[in-house]
Amino acid sequence: MVTLFSSSAVDAEMEANNIHSMLQANGIASVVVGASVIPSLEFQVRVPRASAAEAERLLEEARAAGPEAASEAEAASEEGSH
What we know:
The protein has 82 residues and is α+β, with helices and mostly antiparallel strands. Helices cover 52% and strands 17% of the residues.
């Protein structure tokens, strides 16, 4: 496993979970490492080494698209589930 994301910022847990969800939705296995009870420690998202390049590409695309694209994708997935 290699680290794709690592942060100890205030919103690190939320960002790590969002990245994890995005990767899972695209068929890439990942794990979130961190403890919310110890907020001074980093949160990390790790992926298998064989998937690292694809995971990095997806993360870059998601960051380039911005939060508006994430909101649109969430709304579209909610419409599809009804």
